[in-house]
Amino acid sequence: MSLTAKNIYINLPVKDLRRSTEFFGQIGFQFDER
């Protein structure tokens, strides 16, 4: 039986949230604004 992750939650402190979400969005991550 193999397990696969469907979601990954990362909590990192950042100085500029807008720049951070743009960067991670450009490398393929999706964000749930909830």
Automatic annotation (TrEMBL):
Domain Glyoxalase/Bleomycin resistance-like N-terminal: 9-33
Pfam families the record matches: Ble-like_N
Protein name: Glyoxalase/Bleomycin resistance-like N-terminal domain-containing protein
Species: Planifilum fimeticola
Top-level taxonomy: Bacteria, Bacillati, Bacillota, Bacilli, Bacillales
